[in-house]
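Lecture notes, unit on protein representations.

Consider one protein chain, 161 amino acids long.
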Amino acid sequence: MPTKDAVWQALIAAFPEPDDTDTHVPALYYSQMADALAGLAKVYADAFRDAVYRIQKDGLTSERYAIVEHFRESRKVNPSLVREDHPDVYAELVHLDGRTAQSILGASVLFAQCVDAVGEEEVLEKAVITVKDLEEALGEEYAAPYLEVKRSHDHFEVAVK
């Protein structure tokens, strides 16, 4: 099987790095190679998944190789069991996350209850209105002056002038 270095050397031989006085040309080359290799990596990953699926589906075995399945583990508490076995711990720790509380009560009811609990000034410091909700309420054109737009670097592109 080829190593990463062997593949790299084959690619460099087949697609040599440009030797150009305009430094934008190598930048364009690297950008296009990165895109091509990302696409190729997806092709190989898909082919690998298909091969493993066929091996497992057909029950194929090999004297030299084995398919090893790796797992990620996630843990989640079963609140009902804790309530049954440790009601004091359950009463101390049980809660709803914000999204669940909002889905049960609704955003405006939850907001009002928070205002009642800690006061309007403290809640207003943390209050939000989603862009989608404001645009639906006012329309995109009328919502625009109320939006803060922040730009952050995403990526570079070499463009032909």
